[in-house]
Specification:
The protein is α+β, with helices and mostly antiparallel strands. The protein has one domain. Strands 1, 2, 3, 4 and 5 form a 5-stranded antiparallel beta sheet that branches. The radius of gyration is 27 Å and the shape is elongated.
C-alpha cells in the first residue's frame, strides 16, 4: 500500500511539472507573439515616416507646383520660415507652430498639390504619416567652385523629419534627414 502512495505522489509531481512546463510554453508563445506584433507595427510606422520624407522631395521636385506662383513647395516654404539651429532647437513630430508641415494620406501624391490635408496614410492598421521641414542655413557648396554657377549659387541646408504613427499605439516613429539643395545665393 505504501508503494501505491509513493507512485501516486510521484505521478502527481510529474503531472505538476508538465503543467508548469505547458503554462510556461504558452506564456512564452504569447510574449513572442506580442513582440512580433509590436515590431510589425513599428515597421509600419517607420514606413509611414519614410513615405513622409519622400513626399517632401516629391513636392519639391514637382514642376507644376514649382511653376505656380500661388503655391510653395515644402523647402521653399521652410526657407521663408524660422531658421532651425540644431544646437538649440528641437524638432518634434508634434511641434505644430514652427516648422513646415506636409501629410501623406491614402490619396497618395499628386502633381501640382500641396499635401496639407490630414488623414490616414493607410487604413489597416490605421496609420498616420506626416513631415516637418525646417531651414538650417545657406552655405557655399562643397566642390562647386565656379563650375555650377560660382558665387550666384549656394547650398541651402534643410532638416526633414518624417513621422509615422499607428493610431492604436502611443509611440511615434521618426526618421530625420538633412538635405542640401542648390539655390540662388542670398544677396
Amino acid at each position: 500500500m505504501k508503494q501505491q502512495g509513493v507512485v501516486m505522489v510521484f505521478a502527481l509531481l510529474v503531472l505538476l511539472s508538465l503543467t508548469i512546463l505547458g503554462i510556461s510554453a504558452v506564456s512564452s508563445s504569447l510574449s513572442q507573439s506580442k513582440m512580433a506584433v509590436a515590431m510589425q507595427q513599428s515597421g509600419i510606422a517607420f514606413d509611414a515616416a519614410e513615405a513622409a520624407i519622400a513626399g517632401v522631395f516629391f513636392e519639391s521636385e514637382d514642376e507644376v507646383l514649382l511653376s505656380d506662383d500661388d503655391l510653395t513647395d515644402p523647402l521653399s516654404e521652410a526657407r521663408q520660415g524660422n531658421t532651425f539651429n540644431p544646437q538649440t532647437d528641437a524638432m518634434s513630430c508634434f511641434d505644430n507652430a514652427q516648422w513646415t508641415d506636409r501629410n501623406m494620406t491614402t490619396s497618395g501624391l499628386s502633381s501640382g498639390t500641396r499635401h496639407t490635408t490630414t488623414g490616414d496614410y493607410q487604413t489597416t492598421p490605421a496609420t498616420q504619416s506626416w513631415s516637418k521641414t525646417a531651414f538650417i542655413r545657406e552655405q557655399a557648396c562643397r566642390g562647386s567652385s565656379n563650375v555650377i554657377g560660382g558665387s550666384n549659387v549656394n547650398c541651402h541646408v534643410f532638416i526633414i523629419r518624417g513621422c509615422g504613427k499607428v493610431k492604436s499605439k502611443p509611440s511615434v516613429v521618426a526618421n530625420t534627414l538633412s538635405a542640401a539643395v542648390f539655390g540662388p545665393a542670398s544677396q
